[in-house]
Amino acid sequence: MAQSAQEAKKAIKAKRQLDNEDEGREHRIEGRRKQRMKQDAIKRAKRRKRIMKMSAAWVGVIFVIFLAVTWFSGDLIAWMDDLS
Description:
Number of helices: 2
Structural class: mainly alpha
Number of strands: 0
Helix content: over 70%
Order of helices and strands: HH
Largest sheet: none
Number of domains: 1
Shape: rod-shaped
């Protein structure tokens, strides 16, 4: 009888240890998930910032080309007339 009581105590102790390990594992998984979400948010923010810079650069290039075409429109028309 004494041995079965000790075995029962050991079983209870082992179950508690497994429960504690399971809780720790869940906590680590949750921490990794939060960290991964934070890193993904940072990546998205950097990507969004890069896209905005590129779009601003392209708008600037198109605007400069438009200004150049407008500024030199007389020369372009004269050149086109010379071609024909």
